Amino acid sequence: EVQLLESGGGLVQPGGSLRLSCAASGFSFNSFAMSWVRQAPGKGLEWVSSIPGSGPSTYYADSVKGRFTISRDISKNTLYLQMNSLRVEDTAVYYCAKDRRVAGNTQIFASWGQGTLVSVSS
Amino acid sequence: EIVLTQSPGTLSLSPGERATLSCRASQSVLGTYLAWYQQRPGQAPRLLIYDASRRATGIPDRFSGSGSGTDFTLTISRLAPEDFAVYYCQQYGGAPNTFGQGTKVEIK
């Protein structure tokens, strides 16, 4: 069974930093693209960033480009999102999501974690 | 970026009724690369439909998707109590992938 468990959320001041983690199990972690998707309170879904199963490529929404960095540690089966220069508008629940297809980067989010809340406020 | 507009914003129906949700794209979606997700209160989204009409693993056959180009539809043939939720469409044919604003299906 696929399991994704996010952690690392919390309250941070504008301009601050936070690192989110997503511990993955139940599948071959290095065979699937992984993504972060966020949801502001009471709002819809917004794709944030993706990383393929292998290779150096990473992808970001314009709203976070240059501030957020996605990475993965295959040895720990863990996905990360380093968030710097945080803004009030980054406040959201952050979900990690697994791609549907092996060795693909379809951007079809087949499995989701339960999310971790990031609050940016002074 | 492709903008997805979902309608209606809220759909008030009774259990057993048919639900028809619409998703319209600002430009043609490449290759019918459109998905639908369900989000129940306090839960993460769940993939229902991908490639416009293919049901994801474990999704009941009362859920069906159709459409191409700029107009897509999610149909729930007979609403079960657990189907009252918010539904989002997502296109992944163009970068960046984008979501609609959601349609809430509520109990009438």
Structural account:
Chain A is globular and about 40 Å long. The model of chain A has no long low-confidence stretch (mean pLDDT 96). The termini of chain A are far apart. Chain A has 122 residues and is mainly beta. Chain A contains no helices and 11 strands. In chain A, strands 2, 4, 5, 6, 9, 10 and 11 form a 7-stranded mixed β-sheet that branches. In chain A, strands 1-3-8-7 form a 4-stranded antiparallel β-sheet, with no helix packed on it. In chain A, 39% of the residues are buried. In chain B, strand 5 and strand 6 form a beta hairpin. In chain B, 33% of the residues are buried. By secondary structure, chain B is mostly beta strands. Classes of the chains: A mainly beta (122), B mainly beta (108). Chains A and B meet through strand 5 and strand 10 of A and strand 5 and strand 10 of B.
Which features would summarize this protein structure in a list?
A: 0% helix, B: 108 residues, mainly beta, 7-stranded mixed sheet, 4-stranded antiparallel sheet, 0% helix, 49% strand
Task: Describe the structure in brief.
The complex is a heterodimer of chains A (122) and B (108). Chain A is mainly β and 122 residues long.
Spell out the blueprint of helices and strands.
The complex is a heterodimer of chains A (122) and B (108).
Chain A: E1 3-7, E2 10-12, E3 18-25, E4 34-39, E5 45-51, E6 59-60, E7 68-73, E8 78-83, E9 92-99, E10 109-112, E11 116-120
Parallel strand pairs in A: 2-11
Antiparallel strand pairs in A: 1-3, 3-8, 4-5, 4-9, 5-6, 7-8, 9-10, 9-11
Chain B: E1 4-7, E2 10-13, E3 19-25, E4 34-39, E5 46-50, E6 54-55, E7 63-68, E8 71-76, E9 86-91, E10 98-99, E11 103-107
Parallel strand pairs in B: 2-11
Antiparallel strand pairs in B: 1-3, 3-8, 4-5, 4-9, 5-6, 7-8, 9-10, 9-11
